[in-house]
């Protein structure tokens, strides 16, 4: 994967007090340590910074940071967001990205999606200017990226999973690479709801982009508490309920049981007037039953899907690589699963669906839209290319123009069989 670091060769002194067999064993252990150190660096220095939204100031520049800087240096202004200083006489509207001037140079400041109707209904009671969001846990708290890309071009950002109290996250290693994706077991590392509201609320309001708060918990009360703490936080337009968490009572994932998922949905709906989106787990025995139960309990939209359970084994240590054993698989590897679930759920419910799982470009996004989603989230792709969500917006705008469509809404559910009702 592109964020992999080069490995530094380590010279090991020979210990003459040991037998050849012992030395060989030590060497093998050392190599394993070396590999794991590399994974640890990958985790701490790159993806984890993006995941937690807590940049480590003292650390050498991360690959992600370098990528963002490179993008700034090399890409045209319209691709990376607003120029840091617009030419004199040209005012830039941070919300729309439009350059308000008769000056001919203004044309170079306009974005390809301007003037193209990409507006969609993301949830009941929530329309966004375009159907592209970032996925929870893959874009920090949004503010970290805002200095480098124009986040106001996004339909919305979804923040990192927020729990009632601060959580340090899971033991190392928390990221492992896989073909076409990554496995993660970050463990909902976050500073806790009150701190998230205090620390990021003001900044969110200034970003000029809608913020959806991703809510996590281990009891129904936890979810309600987080929403209560976040109430009134500037910039927040909706809640996305991560039901891929185990219920302390019984240990079952909320999202695996239709009744439990419905109970959380009802409780959160009673706490807020904002739209409530329930994020489905593909690990449920019957995802469609969970989707139906959430709709009946009042959910305003569903996100399909969260990560797929998976595992990798370190064959030298003969142990799972991730500290927690299993983790969540994301990236292009899960896209067909996510599109299929979207397609099934779209035929079972009437509320909007947000597609997520391996979206890397506009073509992928179109698959979800045609399968019945009205919007998409871009997650893992952002680690390899922080501009990926903006490129998806540009690609969708180009598609609408090329196809001569009135709006992107014309393709939503295009691949579904005709409904009987
Ligand atoms: C590192 C990482 C952290 C994540 N953290 C969360 C989280 O806190 N809450 C949540 O609901 N989903 C979380 N997810 C799941 C993503 O939001 C998304 O649903 C999933 O990764 C599929 O999309 P993708 O393939 O585009 O990444 C996380 C995913 C990754 C890769």
Walk me through this protein's architecture:
- This protein is an alpha/beta fold and 421 residues long.
- It has a single domain, classed as TIM Barrel (Alpha-Beta Barrel).
- Helix content is 34%, strand content 16%.
- The protein is built from 12 helices and 18 strands.
- The strands form 5 sheets. The chain has an 8-stranded parallel sheet with strand order 5-18-17-12-11-10-9-6. Strands 7-8-16-13 form a 4-stranded antiparallel sheet. The protein has a two-stranded antiparallel sheet with strand order 1-2.
- A hairpin with a 2-residue loop joins strand 3 and strand 4.
- Helix 10 crosses helix 12.
- The N and C termini lie far apart (46 Å).
- The site of flavin mononucleotide has 27 residues, from strand 8.
Short recap of the structure:
This protein is α/β, with parallel strands linked by helices and 421 residues long.
Identify the notable features of this structure and list them briefly:
421 residues, alpha/beta, TIM Barrel, eight-stranded parallel beta sheet, four-stranded antiparallel beta sheet, 18 strands, 34% helix, 16% strand, disordered N terminus, binds flavin mononucleotide
């Amino acid at each position: 994967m592109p964020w992999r670091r080069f490995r530094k060769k380590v010279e090991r002194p020979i210990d003459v007090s040991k037998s050849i067999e012992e030395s060989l064993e030590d060497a093998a252990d050392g190599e394993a340590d070396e590999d794991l150190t590399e994974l640890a660096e990958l985790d701490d220095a790159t993806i984890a910074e993006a995941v937690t939204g807590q940049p480590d100031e003292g650390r050498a520049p991360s690959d992600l940071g370098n990528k963002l800087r490179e993008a700034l240096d090399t890409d045209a202004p319209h691709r990376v967001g607003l120029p840091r200083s617009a030419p004199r006489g040209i005012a830039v509207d941070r919300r729309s990205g439009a350059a308000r001037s008769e000056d001919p140079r203004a044309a170079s400041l306009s974005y390809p999606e301007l003037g193209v109707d990409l507006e969609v209904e993301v949830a009941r009671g929530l329309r966004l200017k375009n159907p592209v969001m970032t996925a929870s846990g893959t874009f920090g708290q949004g503010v970290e990226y805002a200095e480098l890309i124009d986040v106001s071009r996004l339909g919305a950002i979804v923040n990192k999973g927020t729990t009632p109290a601060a959580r340090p996250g899971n033991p190392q290693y928390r990221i492992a690479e896989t073909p076409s994706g990554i496995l993660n077991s970050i463990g909902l590392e976050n500073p806790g709801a009150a701190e998230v509201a205090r620390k990021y609320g003001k900044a969110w309001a200034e970003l000029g982009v809608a913020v959806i708060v991703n809510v996590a918990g281990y009891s129904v009360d936890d979810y309600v508490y987080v929403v209560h703490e976040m109430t009134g936080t500037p910039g927040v337009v909706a809640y996305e309920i991560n039901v891929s968490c185990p219920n302390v009572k019984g240990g079952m994932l909320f999202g695996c049981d239709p009744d439990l998922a419905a109970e959380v949905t009802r409780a959160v709906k009673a706490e807020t007037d904002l739209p409530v989106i329930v994020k489905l787990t593909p690990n449920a025995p019957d995802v469609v039953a969970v989707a139906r139960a959430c709709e009946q309990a009042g959910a305003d939209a569903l996100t399909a899907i969260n990560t797929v359970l998976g595992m990798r084994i370190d064959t030298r240590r003969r142990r799972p690589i991730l500290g927690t054993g299993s983790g969540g698989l994301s990236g292009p590897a899960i896209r067909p699963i996510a599109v299929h679930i979207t397609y099934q759920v779209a035929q079972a419910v009437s509320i909007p669906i947000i597609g997520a799982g391996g979206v890397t470009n506009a073509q992928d996004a179109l698959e979800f839209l045609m399968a019945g989603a009205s919007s998409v989230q871009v997650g893992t792709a952002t680690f390899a290319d922080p501009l990926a969500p903006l490129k998806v917006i540009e690609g969708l705008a180009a598609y609408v123009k090329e196809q001569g469509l009135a709006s992107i809404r014309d393709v939503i559910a295009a691949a579904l069989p005709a409904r009987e009702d």
